[in-house]
TrEMBL record:
Annotated protein name in UniProt: Haloacid dehalogenase
Organism the protein comes from: Neiella marina
Cofactor: Mg(2+)
Alphabetized GO MF terms: hydrolase activity
Keywords noted in UniProt: Hydrolase, Magnesium
Gene3D superfamilies linked to this entry: 1.20.120.1600, HAD superfamily/HAD-like
Top-rank taxon: Bacteria
Biological process terms in GO annotation: riboflavin biosynthetic process
Length: 241
């Protein structure tokens, strides 16, 4: 573990989920493939769309509906609905199929279990700290083995709570936990969403860096965490000492 700035023991700890407590890439590959197969059965036009094409399409929808840009769940639903409508499906059918498609995607992106050693470390932390999740994604902790770990799970919500690095979810967590910003420690893998977001909200920030890459001067200037760790176990030992 590496310490960059003076920090204090928190009253509560928030965790990012994807790529912080597990490698999310295989889950997304599987979910996107299952969704694509289902879409292609409904209309052959979808067969030509790659994962990259869908990402571009969602960005276009986000530009048309700015309030959806922070809420990946709402954005995915809207993109699917618009894609069905563009291929001649009736409005009611487009909405219904978009919901079915999203639920299929959500099911497959949550078809895994967090490693037992990680869950055990989280449960150990929970004996001393209040734990919450602050995520920009749509992982469902109760489906992936984390159902008894977090007191609260905070997601962006279109038109109400913006995604990290905005302060909205941190402020919501403070309210629910009855803590002040400096009493929270946020842990995550993303230097902007997690580290810069937490620091901008007045929280302490811990950067999960499993590859142990070196921070560049520009990264240090933009988002210098209070601490860095490559294994959760080493951080838990410090927090529980």
């Amino acid at each position: 573990m590496r310490v960059y700035k003076r920090w204090q023991r928190p009253l509560a700890i928030s965790f990012d989920l994807d790529d912080t407590l597990y490698d999310n890439a295989p889950n997304m590959v599987k979910a996107e493939a299952e969704l694509q197969a289902w879409l292609t059965e409904l209309h052959q036009d979808f067969a030509a769309m790659s994962v990259v094409d869908w990402a571009k399409y969602r960005r276009q929808v986000a530009l048309q509906h700015a309030h959806l840009g922070d809420d990946m769940t709402a954005l995915r639903r809207a993109a699917l609905q618009q894609a069905f409508a563009a291929r001649g499906f009736a409005a009611a059918d487009s909405k219904r199929l978009a919901e079915q498609g999203f639920e299929l995607f959500l099911h497959h992106r949550n078809q895994f279990q967090v490693a037992k050693d990680i869950v055990a470390l989280m449960q150990r932390l929970k004996t001393r700290y209040r734990l919450v999740a602050i995520t920009n994604g749509n992982a469902q902790p109760h489906l992936i083995g984390l159902d008894k770990v977090f007191d609260h799970i905070f997601y962006p919500l279109a038109g109400q709570y913006r995604a990290k690095p905005h302060v909205d979810l941190f402020r919501l967590a403070e309210h629910k936990l009855a803590i002040k910003p400096h009493q929270g420690l946020h842990l995550g893998d993303h230097l902007i969403s997690d580290v810069a977001g937490a620091i901008g909200a007045g929280w302490h920030a811990g950067w999960f860096n499993p590859a142990q890459t070196q921070l560049t001067p520009s990264q240090r200037a933009l988002a210098l965490p209070h601490l860095e760790y490559s294994r959760l176990a080493e951080l838990v030992d410090v927090l529980m000492a």
